[in-house]
Amino acid sequence: MKDDLSPLEIDALTEIFNIGIGRAANSLNKMVSQLVDLTIPEIEILPNATAKSRLCFESDMEISAVTQRFDGDFKGQALLMFGKESGLKLVSTLLGNKVPLEALSELEQDSLVEIGNVILNACFGTVINFLKSSITIEMPEFTQGNIDKVFTYSSEQDWSLYIKVKFSLPNEKIDGHISFLMDITSLEVFQESVRQFVYGIEKRTS
Amino acid sequence: MSKIILVVDDSMVSRMMIKEILHNHQPSATIIEASSGDNALEQLNHESEVDIALVDYNMPGMTGLELFHELEGIVKIEKRALLTANIQDEIKERTLKAGIEFLNKPISEDIIAPFLNS
Fold this sequence. Notes:
heterodimer; A: 206 residues; Chemotaxis protein chec; 8-stranded antiparallel beta sheet; 6 helices; 47% helix; B: 118 residues; alpha/beta; Rossmann fold; 5-stranded parallel beta sheet; 5 strands; 26% strand
């Protein structure tokens, strides 16, 4: 499965997500009035368990996550994850550092869901437009717990499209991670969409 | 004399899309293609003048802005554009302040052609 996408197709997918994440960062930048640093997306097709281990969260670390399920031409879930402390700092920054830290937890869920909604939709919108696909996106949900609670999947056997993006607010030392997980059938449909996209470019440039 | 155009982007697909547009608007141009800032510096070793440079911002190693900074004093570039998915105001301000055009990805003829013809 890992070899099913050619280097050029992986390159195209990386670029598509790069554009989506760039838009997401711009939205986040406007929400918190700070420059948001981004890493270039790392895209791999990995077994679910390997994808999970790549996130480098300690097993006892408390994570705040926003998940958004999607369905249609392909289905799965997108995950936006922060260490709990980073999540609280982000909420505090969003609220202009005016709310005392101890009062933040009440606002944490609402704020992170809103941030997740903005970031994940920027990614979805870009991918869907490029691949000319049709998917519906469910409402974002908030989850808190260790990596086993946050990063869940239905089958150990499935391979996933694993996209790792790290973004940070350098002034606040806040790091976040984004991953997209899809089951094997959806992955195949998704791969075919990517192939069609690249084929279109190759045809025009040949 | 044909123009020399520098295209720097870590994405091969992006470079292909840019070259397609360049081919339509500057068919006789010589295109120097690089996948990173370092790669561009190596390839520009023997060039003293470039007519147009289209450079991605977010690349492994140096950013597009850092590359433009490195090139100052080494290569004279007539027209420079940062082509990026990172559309944050601070990046845009830094780019424009350096006298570099700021072009938003995704790459399209509508974005590139006006810059080429300006």
